[in-house]
Specification:
Elements: H1 25-28, H2 47-52, H3 56-69, H4 75-78, H5 82-85, H6 89-114, H7 126-141, H8 147-160, H9 167-179, H10 191-197, H11 202-212, H12 214-224, H13 246-258, E1 264-267, H14 274-282, E2 287-292, H15 295-305, E3 315-318, E4 331-337, H16 352-355, H17 360-376, E5 379-389, H18 398-404, E6 410-413, H19 416-424, E7 436-437, E8 440-442, E9 454-460
Parallel strand pairs: 1-2, 1-4, 2-3, 4-5
Antiparallel strand pairs: 5-9, 6-9, 7-8, 8-9
Length: about 450
């Protein structure tokens, strides 16, 4: 990850409450009281004094990582909140680099730190673990951060968070790490080894190896560790085209091309609205209904779409697609982009890997089947539905479709023809033949230059 901070970690800025009593709350969300230490342990600097020695960027990053770890917020939302907006541009860049970097590399960082502890099996207090991760990440991955800044401020973060007893250990571990040679890539690695090196849960990577092969799983892990960048999959960009990732754009383009003369269109899980915009842009004569089960997210979607003149005719409806009671009539085109685990988007949402449990896939699949069955009730004879996810897991993709196809005269339509049409019209800038598996779209991070998406076209006979 590139460090875009120009401060080098050494210059401390007095904005954002550094040195003020309110800045103590920026570390843990509440006033922190340092633990009592025996007299023999020597004097301890006050929490306020410790906070005054920490740059606003690191204070903000520490707080955000703590909230993410407690499931009290999503990294993207927290990085665009008031706590970060008040920072200087340089500090915002460093805060973002620290938060996203630590989340991407957390498993690998913990493994490196664990090997340097006197008791590797000991469980560290969460504030101490976060301080160590932040320090280790800066030492291993941010070339422009001086080692002394990474060490000293990690120590002060422990002190400011009420963990003064751990400062000596944090200092010693990070000094050992700074003196050690950075890890290289082995000539051959086991799946467990490259999963750890690239910061992924072993059980998740083993699933990808079983589904896509070792080489593809390795590329997925490597891609997940990179900052998402806008690819070159599409010819048309800029102007009044919505800004969105290539995977989402591709699903929207496939849906629009599935029924190019569609008159009634339903985007049944519309938020945040990017694919709805593609449908509105491509299908200029269609009546388009955008719905979502969340009134808040739908309101945000409406606000986004109002910025585009060609989306003025889109109607909005708060509705659960599983029962389809919030919309009326039948549609000749339905986009069913369902909520999912999001394992195809870990590059932009790195905390997914830390929160995800194996039983999540079955829970998601049950909900997805309900949504797909509900949406199909509104599909007109001869109409087509595009079912899509941003998941890499078979339970949420092929498994859901297999459970529904065949009932009520619903059949698959190979996506090859739609992809060929997009290529002939000059929408795609390159070949995507390798992204078609068994008649469905399947993109893989690191293989196809975008996030991992699955899409299949279904038709009611």
């Amino acid at each position: 990850m590139k460090d875009e901070s120009t401060s080098g970690g050494g210059k401390r800025k007095r904005g954002a409450g550094a040195g003020k009593p309110g800045a103590v709350k920026a570390v843990s969300g509440k006033a922190v009281v340092a633990r009592k230490r025996p007299v023999s342990a020597g004097p301890t600097a006050s929490v306020e004094a410790a906070v005054a020695k920490i740059t606003p960027a690191r204070l903000a990053a520490f707080e955000i990582l703590k909230l993410v770890g407690e499931n009290k917020g999503h990294s993207d939302e927290l990085l665009h909140s008031a706590r970060v907006d008040g920072l200087s541009p340089e500090d915002r860049n460093l805060t973002t680099a620290l938060v996203m970097g630590v989340l991407r590399w957390q498993i690998a960082l913990d493994a490196r730190v664990r090997g340097l502890l006197q008791r590797p099996e000991q469980r560290l207090a969460e504030p101490v673990a976060i301080a160590l991760r932040m320090g280790a990440f800066q030492l291993l991955h941010l070339e422009r951060i001086p080692a002394h800044a990474a060490l000293s401020e990690s120590v002060e973060l422990c002190r400011a968070a009420g963990e003064p007893h751990a400062t000596g250990m944090v200092n010693a571990v990070l000094r050992k790490l700074a003196a050690a040679q950075k890890p290289g890539v082995r000539i051959h690695e086991s799946v467990a080894a490259f999963a750890e090196r690239l910061g992924h849960p072993r059980w998740l990577v083993e699933r990808w190896v079983a589904a896509y092969g070792r080489d593809a799983a390795l590329k997925i892990c490597e891609a997940d560790q990179q900052e998402p960048v806008e690819g070159g999959m599409f010819v048309e960009r800029g102007g009044d085209w919505p800004v969105m990732d290539d995977g989402s754009r591709l699903v929207g383009e496939i849906a629009a091309a599935a029924v190019p003369g569609a008159k009634r269109v339903w985007d049944c899980c519309a938020a945040p609205g990017g694919k709805t915009l593609i449908l509105a842009k491509r299908l200029g004569d269609a009546e388009i209904v955008a719905s979502d089960v969340s009134s808040k997210r739908l309101a945000q979607t409406g606000a986004r779409l109002r910025r585009y003149a060609y989306a003025e005719r889109v109607e909005f409806s708060v509705a659960d697609a599983a029962d389809a009671k919030g919309v009326e009539g039948e549609f000749d085109l339905i986009l069913c982009d369902v909520p999912c685990s999001g394992t195809g988007t870990i590059a932009g949402n790195p905390e997914i890997r830390h929160r995800l449990k194996v039983d999540e896939f079955a829970r998601q699949a049950e909900r997805q089947r309900a949504i797909l069955k509900g949406a199909l009730k509104r599909l007109a004879p001869g109409g087509r539905l595009v079912y899509s996810t941003c998941s890499l897991e078979v339970e949420e993709c092929e498994g859901v479709v297999d459970a529904v196809v065949g009932a009520g005269g619903v059949v698959r339509v190979p996506v090859d023809g739609v992809m060929a049409e997009l290529a002939e019209r000059g929408v795609l800038s390159g070949e995507m033949d390798s992204a078609v598996r068994e008649g469905a779209l399947r993109t893989l991070p690191g293989v196809h230059g975008c996030d991992g998406f699955y899409a299949v076209v279904l038709e009611r006979e």
